[in-house]
User: What shape does this take?
Amino acid sequence: MNAKNADKIATGVLYAIAGIVILILAALLGYILIQGVPHLSWHFLTAPASAFTAGGGIGIQLFNSLYLLLITMLLSFPIALGAGIYLNEYANPKSKITGMVRMTIEILSSLPSVVVGLFGFLLFVVQFNLGFSILSGAIALTFFNLPLLTRSIEDALATVPDLQREAGSALGLSRWETVGHIILPAALPSIVTGVVLSAGRVFGEAAALIYTAGQSAPALNFGDWNPFNISSPLNIMRPAETLAVHIWKINSEGIMPDAQEVSAGASAVLIIVVLIFNFSARYLSSYLYKRLTSTK
Amino acid sequence: MTEKILTTENVRLYYGDNEALHGINLDYDQYGITALIGPSGSGKSTYLRALNRMHDLQDNVTVNGNFMFKGRDIYAPDTDTVALRKEIGMVFQQPNPFPFSIYDNVAFGLRISGEKNKSVLDEKVETSLKQAAVWDEVKDDLHKSALSLSGGQQQRVSIARALATAPEILLLDEPTAALDPVSSHKVENTLMALRDQYTMIIVTHSMSQASRLSDRTAFFMSGDLIEVDSTKQMFLNPTEQKTQDYISGRFG
Ligand SMILES: Nc1ncnc2c1ncn2[C@@H]1O[C@H](COP(=O)(O)OP(=O)(O)OP(=O)(O)O)[C@@H](O)[C@H]1O
Ligand SMILES: [Mg+2]
Assistant: This one.
């Protein structure tokens, strides 16, 4: 067999593999969307769930998911940003501390999310007495999210060429100023991509939440924005079943007559939101890049 | 004899334990262009970067010697490196505009040092771009990304950026090495036009560039300064055999 034929065969095989991957993804998405989209309605998206009768919605779970995502990001982004900047801009790659930080992050990222959830349960829910709450859930999700987010921020910073750092100091900037005024702005489009993609991952996470944010979704009063009231949507000490947990729960113990439909609809919503995150990550990043490189 | 703006005495520089410069003595009059030539690895960049303390950014580099800029010790413990690098600007081999607009690039140094007045910024940006001979090519679209320019334009914008903070000395490390002949020519013209207002030290591998541009040429080899003289003298009648060999292209 000559090189040309070998090349042809290799190309063909690679195309086939790529095709299969796309096919699997398309089938999966298609199945979930075809099953679920017919059940979507404004009512379904906004009404509270009902445990025993048909016609319940996912309004509270959807809100819980988004709110929990927000709190998680508020907790994890500053830490991940700091860690990413430290690792890429300050840390001496040969030092023991850097090595340890990296190893910690790697181990953390390889922990199964169930374990993270259980840890969150034992430590925050029980030990620190935070109960099943948005806060406990957000902390668990922060553990879950931190390693990947840190890694993606670090990678974003690493793509900024060293020439830029030299140019900054040649203009008389301290290292910190170089990071703040040049490196971070330059890396912003990819940092945002990383954040939005990780948001998609966090949004769909269930296992880490079952024992931390809890499996119940008490009724919320959307007229009450005092975060200290128990029925306020903003209260972070209330239990908050999320969309992903809800899907898991309906499928394991749902007794409403339309459990099938609710589950399919909720799954479709989940997938759609995650897809929105993915697409907006791309869009945002190119938009920011344009904004950054020109001032109008 | 005129006052020297910059003197360097007995410069020894170590990368770890490895001595890369073995005692360089060189000083500079105000204004004019000094070219540093020599084979690859001879220590030209190393020497140049010692002048505005760029080595500070790296661990493991030890700089010894006496550096005086306008009577002040560059390596004195209380030297403000930020202020120093504003007075001794630098242009690199690779054009390296920041990923911002042309305007923001040139205004960058001024903004960092606290200049907010729009009309001052506008004026400085315009003069710097004119000095760098790139104004006519970019004036209609100052707000587009500097990255969208050609390499030659980017390099001239980088020069403008360095000029905007009004340095007294400009260090240039092979500023035209990455450019096509037309762009190099424009950058050379830029430097020619600046020679009466700035003290410039330029590293170059091009003998013809050194002879066209510089008033004075210094020849480096293996971490030593072999010879320094007026450019004319160096190219027509060098004292050292090594210089003669290098200039006539016998090695390096
Ligand atoms: N960061 C560094 N760490 C260790 N050694 C270095 C470093 N930079 C340069 N050197 C060494 O110092 C010597 C001088 O290098 P330098 O870059 O100053 O040469 P140069 O004259 O600028 O060469 P070129 O013309 O190729 O740019 C070389 O032997 C080089 O290997
Ligand atoms: Mg060099």
Notes: The pocket of magnesium ion (ligand 2) is lined by residues B 44-45, 173, 203 (CB under 6 Å). The mean pLDDT of chain A is 87.
